[in-house]
Design a protein that fits this description.
The chain is an alpha+beta fold. Helices cover about 45% and strands about 10% of the residues. The longest helix has 16 residues.
């Protein structure tokens, strides 16, 4: 699923369209809500129901994002977010029930339960047979929250879109 963001009255090609998949969009919009609550309050930013900002609001948000980029706010936010994500505990793999060997119907059908591991895999996992494609045989996965990345580049591109969009709708 993606968030297609359309400019209401674009003044350039950059202001016509901005797209993020849901993984990238949620942290971006969360950041906008954090640094510009007076602009984003009441905007249904986590849905693609056509909500958005008018031209004045979009330009104001573009300004706030641009200042945040130049003053290092975005970089600090990204660093702290990455540190937080790295600190999250691993989660038990749901495909192999944290065993590292997938024995459900899909695993058996694809031979994962009897798969012979490479020497490197066997050394790392402490066994010679059995694999899970969900956790690479480890029995645990990164926290689900780590699937939602945030980056300076994404903020820069969104700020450029906002500045030239003439307002926007999230569809």
């Amino acid at each position: 699923m993606g968030m297609d963001v359309y400019g209401n009255n674009p003044i350039s090609e950059k202001g016509e369209y901005f797209r993020n998949n849901v993984w990238w969009w949620r942290p971006l919009w969360d950041f906008c809500e954090e640094i510009a609550p007076e602009l984003t309050q009441g905007v249904q930013g986590h849905t693609n129901d056509g909500d958005g900002l008018d031209e004045e609001g979009a330009k104001a948000l573009a300004n706030i994002l641009t200042i945040s980029l130049s003053e290092g706010v975005v970089d600090t936010y990204e660093q702290k977010r990455n540190e937080y994500l790295a600190s999250l505990p691993k989660e038990p793999c749901k495909y192999c029930e944290a065993t590292g060997i997938r024995t459900d119907n899909v695993g058996v059908e694809h031979g994962m339960d009897v798969q012979v591991l490479t020497d490197a895999e066997a050394s790392a996992l402490g066994r010679a047979i059995g694999y899970c494609n969900g956790c690479h045989g480890k029995g645990e996965t990164d926290s689900w929250e780590t699937h939602y990345p945030f980056s300076r580049t994404n903020v820069e591109e969104f700020a450029q879109f906002l500045a030239d969009s003439g307002g926007f709708k999230i569809c």
